[in-house]
Write a structure and sequence with these properties.
12 helices; globular; about 425 residues; four-stranded mixed β-sheet; Rossmann fold
Length: about 425
């Protein structure tokens, strides 16, 4: 490298003619794009919005910001005009500090996908993101011989880590497009010889239901929600591959993984993760925790997920702490209700909500259901597998569940659907 040029290899591994984007951008060209960005006057600002689906463009911005020490990048949770305007208005207050984060620690501000409500912004440091990408490459053996196909966009943490930073640090190639439909995923995988698939549970459900496998894969990843065991096993059988589920969140980074094909029902924490249980809540100490998080005195962060310890240093997830509601004075686990509904004949998919009744003191359980049948039939079937307090007060039949761009349930849209059909 020329004198005075940043050490890009400290962030991306070897620079050379190898492809970063399959059939497109090389790693040498990526460095040139990072240099050009760093020289642009807009890159001298304290902060800059990174709103793109272009994996090469996202990689160049992240690389330039990491190697040159700024600006702070703000990544919106969607690319609609409304969201971009909303995020742009929020920049001054966001940069002023998120959850007490010190500005010197912040490299990127990322939003949650809005699965549990209104999207929330979290700070991430360079070491958070690049460190986790390096761990993923090492743990799962991702390297220059791999071609990654991602069905999730690069502007959420899952897509950013697995389809931008992971190929950046490992030397793997990434396919430019972000497919959604099963045949699109199948076609791009065949065209480019994909060896690794990165997708959300909704994608695996559609692939399994359509009988679509991806020959040639050596590994598939699922995150951004809980993968139904049958969907994962069916896709693995069709594709002759293993599906690795990764558990974590925007604020914690990756925490643990499991593979059903290997007989793993419970979650094995990554080697760098220290963990414990506070009441029922999982708590972790990790190099991937967002700067500025409120920690216990011992440095542990209490997550919003309920767990129990199981033998072998693993844990079992019991659901979200905010996924338990009170109905008639009794605790109702909404995820447990959903699992029981999915076992009913004719129910292909479901989402269970706890909605406040007028007055705000009571909660009603409402189920959005994709499948054959109607409300009386589902109500009758549910009475055989659910306790009275667990039974949905209303069943809303929908053609498909509302999803975010990352393939996660869109809870705001789901609540609107439930309200419209009341």
């Amino acid at each position: 490298m020329s004198v005075g040029r940043p050490d890009y290899e400290a962030w991306m591994g070897p620079v050379g003619p190898g492809q970063f984007v399959a059939l497109g951008l090389t790693r040498d060209q990526l460095v040139l794009r990072a240099d050009a960005l760093a020289a642009d006057s807009s890159f001298q600002r304290p902060s800059l919005m990174m709103a793109t689906q272009d994996r090469g463009g996202a990689a160049a911005m992240l690389l330039a910001a990491a190697a040159h020490g700024g600006p702070v990048l703000l990544v919106p949770y969607a690319l609609s005009q409304r969201v971009l305007e909303e995020v742009e208005k929020a920049i001054p207050s966001t940069i002023a500090g998120v959850s007490g984060a010190r500005p010197a620690d912040v490299f990127v501000y990322l939003y949650t996908g809005g699965t549990t409500g209104q999207p929330k912004v979290w700070a991430k440091s360079r070491d958070n993101l690049f460190g986790e990408a390096r761990l993923l490459a090492q743990r799962f053996g991702i390297g220059p011989s791999d071609t990654i196909l991602a069905a999730v966009p690069p502007y959420h943490i899952y897509g950013m880590l697995f389809s931008v930073l992971l190929p950046l640090v490992s030397g793997a190639r990434v396919i430019a497009e972000t497919p959604f439909l099963p045949r699109e995923i199948e076609g791009l995988a065949e065209q480019h010889g994909a060896s690794v698939l990165v997708a959300a549970p909704a994608h695996y459900r559609a692939l399994a239901a359509g009988g679509v496998g991806i020959p040639g894969l050596r590994m598939a990843f699922s995150s951004g929600g809980f993968l139904d065991e049958g969907d994962g096993l069916r896709f693995g059988e069709l594709s002759h591959t293993r599906v690795v589920e990764v558990y974590g969140s925007t604020e914690t980074g990756g925490i643990a993984s499991r593979c059903r094909q290997d007989g793993e029902a419970d979650w094995e924490p990554f080697p760098v993760i220290e963990w414990g249980v506070d009441g029922e809540r999982l708590c972790v100490r990790s190099p991937f925790l967002s700067p500025g998080l409120e920690l216990r005195k011992d440095g542990m962060f209490i997550t919003g997920d309920r767990v129990e310890r199981v033998p072998g240093g693993r844990f079992r997830l019991l659901g979200r702490a905010d996924g338990v509601v009170k109905v008639g004075g009794k605790r109702v686990d909404l995820e447990d209700v959903r699992r029981r509904l999915l076992a009913l004949h004719g129910v292909r998919d479901a989402l269970v909500l706890g909605l406040p009744l007028p007055g705000g003191r009571e909660t009603e359980v409402v189920a959005l259901v994709v499948g054959d049948g109607d409300e009386p039939a589902w109500r009758h079937a549910a009475s055989g597998v659910l306790e009275p307090a667990q039974r949905p007060r209303r069943f809303v039949k929908v053609e498909s569940l509302p999803l975010t761009a990352a393939g996660k349930p869109d809870m705001e849209a789901a609540r609107r659907l439930a309200a419209d059909r009341s």
